[in-house]
Design brief:
alpha/beta; single chain; three-stranded mixed sheet; globular; GMP Synthetase, Chain A, domain 3; 44% helix
């Protein structure tokens, strides 16, 4: 039933969640002490705690004094997923935190129907009123990247007037979705116009889910076709989803590089970071602005200590098609190298002066090279939900092979 959750209407649920937030944040220190004591009491005799001589104590002071505290990151910035131990209680707490996000956000913007690009490995998640999205569960759970993206994009377009928010875990997910639309809008329009589904989507559960909501809509097909055939893709999100009032995605840290591109495609829609997604490192090479017509679509780097003495850094750039020919000339690349080196920190510049680091090198890769990096990572078992372009790659790796194959 729309507006209901476990028999409770939306406003009552929102009030309950907000009251809960007020209560636990007002007693945060007290609650953390209770949680730690509960964990320590339940695990008093485990081998790990025994080796530190905690001797059954459950107070915070004793724990901090004798047990080294550490955490493991997701490792997604390096391109390698890390396994983080999790318990049933931990998973429940994560679900609780997620359920608290929308009640807060709904105080400022409309949080109804969303076109949200997702990819999940398990359907074992309770229904959440705030997770009302255009994608049926089977399209989200599909492990085939093309079929999942195509079906989710099609469902998002079919409900374009209902969409209030457009999102993905990271802004790169939305940008990839727009690029996917650029490549496949003709097929999508055909399916919308005829009420049929691309034969390439052959997963039966996905086909059943999409065909259950698909019917011929020539007017919508004409609209999508007209917008996609225009020379510019600026503001395409506003144009196809006219009622969208914000973007939901993480745009901090290494994601900040993509903010100008996100603004371009969204037509300046505000971006809401619903969760804080941190990584184990940060990138020095965050964003570049040049006095010539160059737009860096994506980038990564490599510390080359084998081909030259002293070693030097290599930056791989993928540029947009506009101005690509002139941008890749040697004179322009030399200016780019100088501009980037000038923007790096004092330690780097000092080592360059004394000859401890060789001149920076920039290599231009073919359009689509970074998409191949993502596809390789996903085929190796990583989740598209968590994928971020690695900002530094190792010399002897499959990723380097992809970069060099597309480089010049």
């Amino acid at each position: 039933m729309v507006g209901k959750y476990g028999g409770m209407d939306f406003e009552a649920l929102k009030k309950m969640k907000l009251e809960y937030i007020e209560d636990v944040t007002a007693r945060a220190d007290e609650i953390q002490k209770e949680i730690l004591a509960d964990i320590l009491s339940k695990n008093a005799r485990v081998e790990y705690l025994s080796r530190f001589g905690l001797d059954g104590r459950t107070d915070r002071e004793s724990f901090k004094k004798v047990v080294p505290v550490f955490f493991l990151s997701s490792g997604t910035s390096s391109g390698e997923s890390k396994i983080i131990p999790a318990t049933e209680t931990d998973n429940k707490l994560r679900s609780l935190c997620i359920s608290l996000v929308m009640p807060v956000l709904s105080q400022f913007v409309d949080t109804k129907k969303g076109f949200y690009i997702k990819n999940l490995r398990s359907s074992d998640r309770p229904y959440d009123y705030y997770s009302d999205i255009t994608s049926p569960p089977d399209t989200v759970l599909c492990t085939d990247v093309y079929q999942s993206m195509y079906s989710q994009m099609l469902c998002g377009l079919l409900q374009n007037r209902q969409v209030i928010r457009v999102g993905a875990p990271f802004v790169t997910g939305i940008i990839r979705a727009v690029r996917f639309l650029q490549d496949h809008w003709s097929a999508l329009c055909r399916d919308i116009r005829t009420g049929s589904l691309d034969p390439a989507v052959d997963c039966q559960s996905v086909r059943d889910a999409v065909l259950g909501m698909l019917k011929p809509d020539p007017d919508l097909a004409d609209l999508v076709e007209a917008e996609c055939m225009k020379g510019s893709w600026q503001g395409i999100i506003r144009r196809l989803w006219p009622n969208a009032n914000h973007i939901e995605a993480t745009a901090t840290g290494t994601m900040s590089h993509y903010i100008p591109m996100m603004d371009y495609y969204s037509g300046g829609l505000p971006v809401a970071n619903l969760t804080y997604r941190c990584s184990e490192s940060f990138s020095v090479l965050a964003r570049w602005f040049f006095p010539f017509d160059i737009h860096v679509v994506d980038y990564t780097s490599y510390a080359d200590v084998a081909s030259t003495i002293p070693g030097h850094y290599v930056i791989y750039w993928e540029l947009n098609q506009k101005g690509f020919g002139s941008a890749s000339s040697s004179s322009v690349m030399e200016q780019c190298c100088l501009a980037v080196e000038d923007a790096l920190n004092e330690e780097y510049r000092e080592r360059r002066v004394y000859g401890h680091i060789g001149p920076l090198e920039i290599k231009i890769v073919e359009s689509g090279t970074f998409d191949k990096l993502m596809e390789h990572a996903i085929s190796s078992g990583r989740s598209i939900l968590q994928y971020k372009t690695p900002r530094c790659v190792k010399g002897e790796s499959s990723m380097m092979a992809i970069l060099n194959a597309g480089g010049s």
